[in-house]
Amino acid sequence: MLRGMSVIEVSNLHKRYRDKIAVRDVSFAVAEGEIFGILGPNGAGKTTTVECVAGLRAPDGGTIRVLGLDPRRDKDELNSQVGVQLQESQLPERLKVWEALHLYASFYPDPADWERLIDEWGMSEKRATPYGKLSGGQKQRLFIMLALVGRPRVVFLDELTTGLDPQARRETWQLIERLRQTGVTVVLVTHFMEEAERLCDRLAVIDDGAVVAIDTPGGLVSQMDSRQRIRFRVTGPFDKGLLTPIPEVSEVAQNGDHIEVTGTGDLLYAVTAVLARHQIVAAGLRVDQASLDDAFVALTGKRF
Amino acid sequence: MSGTGTLTFTEFKLFLRDPGATIATIGLPVAIVVVFGLIAQPGSGTDPIMTYFPAMALALGLAQLALNVTPTTLASYREKGILRRMSTTPMRPARLLTAQLLISIGLAVAAAVLVVLVGHLGFRFTLPQNFGGFVAAFLLGCAALFAVGLLVAAVAPSARVATGVGVGLFFVSLVFGGVFMPAETLPPFLVRIGDFTPLGAFMQSLRASWGGTMPEPLHLAVLGGYTIVAGLAAARLFRWE
Predict the structure, then answer these.
(1) Would the CB atoms of A56 and B7 count as touching at under 8 Å?
(2) pLDDT tens track of chain B, all 241 residues?
(3) How far is A162 from chain B (nearest CA, A)?
């Protein structure tokens, strides 16, 4: 599965807080240049996992190697090669965008050209705006830039789009897709299915502190059975009995004039053929296939 | 500029952008000297009360800076995850504390110079007569008050609590320390308690050196004691996240 050399290797990671086990026996590897997602519901142990990998927390058990280094023991050496965006971290209200970048660039031995970074990330107009006056999306953009300003080989992004409106979220996704072209390895923590599906090369699904699956988004979905769902509206009376005998159909549900048919195989053709023969007009016809959402529910038994 | 230089300069700009902090630590002490200079007309009189006004202005500014502004700033840096975020970079967050202290001490010195010069040139308050004693009192006073302020920042769970504790300490210190009112007008037991508070010892040392005598050893020892005890406690107890 791995495309290149693995830059992150986590094996049998354990972490407990007092009497609560936050992470149990988590193992995964991330290849160079990959966007690796850590997906799971709130409280699943995603942030704890990524904080251990980034060297912010000491694990209680297991081994972690990032770029061949131990995140705790070799923290100084590692810090110059990773970029981190933390959940709920802020900046001083009166710190301006360019000052934040200038400041963080000064921490690293070989920083990126932060003036160029501002242009590339479309923040030229906000260059002299204080942090406190930025919108949520702009703040997140600044944090991504700060995570990149040290020219890291690995970037950790924790819940980047939480709290953003859909427009800002989509913009942020486009920015992450641009990161892929730079060849940097990205570890993306998220609880948004759509985000994971769109951005990640591979995903670890974490639930209750344990990894329940690691695969590509497509691979996770194809593990699901190939059930399909067709939805449409009818005008006038409708007899469910017309559809139930079709071999491809496993279930027909009717709610007023809304019909939902579940089944397998060439379901769409079989159903529309029968409807046409009885001269029933199916309005607003939609076909749904299993999504990452469904895969997640099947894996963890929860919805969120 | 090195990382530490950029950090210190950036923090300095941020400090100056907070008008409240600049007014409380520099504007207010100078304003006090001006107002009392106009009211008291010190002339060249040698009444010991004349050492009260400039010493009080300095003590007030330094207490604001050390007990109020610094703990609030540092606790908010922790609360906002700024220290934590910095710990993922090659820059150590302890440098941020150092930068804050450097700036605060620099501002305290600037305020002291302004108070002494404005008072002397504008209103003929005397210059500190025992200059060595004045410098010793000022430096030890800075060290003691900032150590206490750092201790507040070290243990306060949030910026709001840090502000509350800092303001509380500030007003208690003003009362016991002979800052609100000259020590000679206070009941003796208040003065005695004040001798053992950092601001009280600072205030009495400043006034003694202003009047021309060496500060009392007790007061300097009290300031040194606070510096060591509170400083070590702050270093041990400081929570980064």
Answers:
(1) no
(2) 578 899 999 999 999 998 888 888 899 999 999 998 888 777 656 677 778 888 999 999 999 999 999 999 999 999 999 999 999 999 988 888 889 889 999 999 999 999 999 999 988 888 898 999 999 999 999 999 999 999 999 999 888 999 999 999 988 888 888 888 888 888 888 888 889 999 999 999 999 999 888 999 999 999 999 999 999 999 888 888 7
(3) 17
> For chain B, what are the domain ranges?
3-237
With a CB-CB cutoff of 8 Å, which residues 45-64 of chain A face chain B?
54-56
Same-domain check for residues A241 and A139: no
Q: Which of A158, A189, A221 is the last residue of a domain?
A: A221
Could you give the angle at the alpha carbon of B227 between the alpha carbons of B226 and B231, nearest 5°? Answer: 105
Instruction: Count the domains in chain A.
Output: 2
Token pair belonging to A160? 């980047």
Chain B closest CA to A102's CA: distance in Å?
8
A156 and A290 together in one domain: no
Nearest to B72 by CA among B2, B212, B168: B168
Best of A96, A107, A110, A145 to disrupt the B interface by mutation (most B CBs within 10 Å)?
A: A107
Please tell me if residue A152 touches chain B, with a CB cutoff of 8 Å.
no
Contact B209, B227 (CB under 8 A): no
Tell me whether residues A99 and B1 touch, CB distance under 8 A.
no
Same domain? For A189 and A288 the reply is no
CATH classification of the domain holding A236: 3.30.70
With beta carbons under 8 A apart, name residues in chain B contacting A107. Answer: 3, 86, 89-91
Cβ neighbors of A43 (< 8 A, separation 6 or more) are none
ipTM over 0.90: no
d(CA B142, CA B109): 9
Beta strand pairing status for A249-255 and A258-263?
Answer: antiparallel
Residue A1 lies in a domain: no
Inspect the interface and report whether the beta carbons of B87 and A88 lie closer than 8 Å.
no
Considering the domain architecture, whether residues A31 and A55 belong to the same structural domain is answered as yes
Could you list the residue range(s) of the whole structural domain that residue A50 is in?
Answer: 6-221
Sole residue written with tokens 């060439």? A266
